[in-house]
Each structure stands twice: as C-alpha cells, then as structure tokens.
Amino acid sequence: MFELKAGAKVGIVTGSASDKSIVDKITVVLDEFGVIWEWNILSAHRTPNKAGKYAREAESRGLQVLIGIAGLAAALPGVLAGHSILPVIGVPGDGGPLSGVDALHSIVQMPPGIPVATVGIGNGKNAGYLAIHIMALQDASLRAKLVAYRKSLGDIEG
Predict the structure, then answer these.
(1) Which residues contact residue 43 at a Cβ distance below 8 angstroms, ignoring those fewer than 6 apart?
(2) Residue numbers of the chain with a pLDDT score lower than 70
(3) 12 strand-pairing partners
(4) How far apart are CA 134 and CA 40, in angstroms?
(5) How far is CA 113 from the centre of its chain?
(6) Contact present, 47 and 102 (Cβ < 8 Å)
(7) What per-residue confidence (pLDDT) applies to 154?
(8) What is the pLDDT of residue 102?
C-alpha cells in the first residue's frame, strides 16, 4: 500500500496491516486536533526502496512529522529517519515473542545524527500527542488547541 493524501501533515507508516490497532490510537488523537494524516504500509525489509522513496518525498509533499510503527527487528522508523530530515517518531509494536521489548531496544538504539523519538511499546496515543507538540511549534492554531487540551488535564493554570 502506498497511498498519498492531499493536505496530510503526518505520515504514518507500518510494516504490515497487523499494526492497525496502533494506527487507530494515533489517528484518534490526530483527528481530535484536526490534523490530516495518511497511513501507508511499507516494510523496511520487504519494500525498502518504496519506504525510502516515501521518506525522501515526504517533506516536499507537505508532511511535517513521520511516525513509524514496527515490531521485532523494528528497522522501519530508522529507515524513515535515514531518508528524511523530518522528525520521526518510532512506535515499537507490541507483538512477537518478547512482546515488543525487542522492537523498543531496536528503535532507541539509533546511530548518532539519525535520531528517532520513541514512545512506549504500543503507545500510539503518545505518538499522536508528540506529533501535535512538534507541529504546534510552528502552528498557532494547533498550539491553542494543545494549550486547551493541557488545561483540560489540569496541567496549565489560567
């Protein structure tokens, strides 16, 4: 699957359709803030050329953040980061014999200069919120929504 969505600001990439439950956690947050997103299935191992092409073209298409979801060897977020200077958020998948611990270790062990921000195993919601925080640095409307959300948590006074 390689589908592009006009106006998308966040590109979500998974290695397979089996990660849809994590994608759903991300998109609930993005939809709540009115952020347009797209989801593509591109494997770091089965379709490495397509994954690299997607990451290389992401910024010119208007994407601002990439989110890579991967389990086991979890190379996908690193592949996205290696082909783009956009911020990349890695979400370790929660499957496999080690319940995602292997994926977590893989994603956080990126070489110097190619960072991937990483959230907890299967924590799509935090990936969505982190994407919102990143984009809110340059988008006053999104920042206002984020401040209102944080106020609703009781974190910000006034």
Answers:
(1) 15, 16, 51, 76
(2) 1-3, 155-158
(3) 39, 67
(4) 21
(5) 18
(6) no
(7) 87
(8) 95
Amino acid at 144: A
Longest CA–CA span in the chain (Å) reads 51
From the CB of residue 8, how many other CB atoms can be counted at a distance below 10 Å? 20
What is the C-alpha separation between 73 and 24, in angstroms, rounded?
22
Q: Coil, helix or strand for 70?
A: strand
> Distance between CA 44 and CA 139 in Å, rounded?
31
The reported pTM is 0.95
CATH topology of domain 10-152: Rossmann fold (3.40.50)
Contacts of 111 (CB under 8 A, 6+ apart): none
To which H or E segment does residue 67 belong? strand 65-70
Q: Write the DSSP symbol of residue 84.
A: -
Bridge partners of residue 68, in order along the sequence:
13, 90
Looking at residue 55, what is its pLDDT? 98
The pLDDT tens digits of the residues spanning 114-132 come to 999 999 999 999 999 999 9
Domain ranges of the chain: 10-152
Please give the backbone phi and psi of residue 5, each rounded to the nearest 5 degrees, phi first. -120, 125
